[in-house]
Amino acid sequence: MDYQNIKFEKDGALAILTVDRPKALNALNSATFHEMEHALNSLKEDTRALIVTGGGDKAFVAGADIAEMATISAAQAREFSALGHRVFEHLENLPIPTIAAVNGFALGGGLELALGCDLIYASEKAKLGVPEVTLGVIPGFGGTQRLTRLLGRARAKELLFTADRLDAAKAKEIGLVLDVLPADKLMEHVKAVAAKILKNGPLAVAQAKRVVEYGADQDLRAANELERQGFAVLFGSEDQREGMAAFLAKRPANFQGK
Ligand code: CAA
């Protein structure tokens, strides 16, 4: 597939997905979602981390495409919402870590895209928010739910009701982004984070993601059982043998993801 709205690059075990419609501040239309879905479906086992960012120098993603949504029916809106949910759930369920590099506006669907990633880092010029109520709607790609789970109900409601656009420092203060970097250092930083992750046992990283994700919606008893299972499963892997043997032999581990 020839992509018109995204760039999808591989750099060894790292993949970088750039939403790339800078003239529309990378707004997410249906065509962009379909390309993102195609890109995610094309990921092979040799890709072990994914960075998501925005093209151009102004925006990560400025939301769902308002021009596309302006005249659609309720039935079409449901379909569009389902498409966005499907792509972001796909992202969330990938067995590899995903990192959002928020390099500018992350509004509405753009913030929802970042929230579908495991880790969010922002540049100093990022602006984040959910301005949907200014358009007479609410977020439709999981924002109401993921924001609530991440920030708690009161802060999520504040952002949803006021449509406030947060600067990066405030977003960090409330725990919406992990760290804030100068604009020209953001990609370097997220690549360094990815590189650190890539040195570790990929099956273990995948299990860590799985038990956190599935455990987060369970009570503690069930969630702890998930952890026990994940821990035990890893003892059937070559990576566990290699990791522990390498430690005892005082040499770096050479993980194969098996
Ligand atoms: N959809 C479609 N086009 C968009 C867009 C969007 N979400 N955001 C920006 N654009 C377009 C603008 O229409 C403009 O196009 P033209 O040059 O053809 O006029 C171009 O991108 C540049 O934008 P601005 O001229 O507005 O740039 P600015 O610097 O003055 O403002 C901004 C930047 C504050 C981000 C402003 O563009 C803005 O408010 N954008 C909309 C943000 C928004 O409301 N997002 C939520 C969308 S709804 C949603 O996401 C629902 C959902 O969850 C499903």
Keywords, separated by commas or semicolons:
Lyase 2-enoyl-coa Hydratase, Chain  A, domain 2, Enoyl-CoA_hydra_C, alpha/beta, Enoyl-CoA_hydra/iso, 4-stranded mixed beta sheet, 6-stranded mixed beta sheet, 47% helix, 258 residues, 16% strand, binds acetoacetyl-coenzyme A, 2-enoyl-CoA Hydratase, Chain A, domain 1, globular, 3-hydroxybutyryl-CoA dehydratase
How does this model look, in words?
There is one protein chain. This protein is of the alpha/beta class and 258 residues long. It has helices at 30-41, 66-69, 74-93, 109-115, 143-151, 153-162, 168-173, 186-198, 202-216, 220-234, 238-248, and strands at 6-11, 14-19, 49-54, 59-61, 98-102, 105-107, 119-123, 127-129, 166-167, 179-181. The chain folds into two domains: 6-198, 2-enoyl-CoA Hydratase, Chain A, domain 1, CATH 3.90.226.10; 202-249, Lyase 2-enoyl-coa Hydratase, Chain  A, domain 2 (Orthogonal Bundle). Helix content is 47%, strand content 16%. The strands form two sheets. It has a six-stranded mixed sheet, sandwiched between helices. It has a four-stranded mixed sheet with strand order 4-6-8-9. Helix 1 (30-41) runs parallel beside helix 3 and helix 5 crosses helix 6. The two termini are 31 Å apart. The relative contact order is 0.11. The structure holds acetoacetyl-coenzyme A. Acetoacetyl-coenzyme A (CAA) binds at residues 24-25, 27, 62-67, 84, 105, 107-109, 112, 131-132, 135, 139-141, 143.
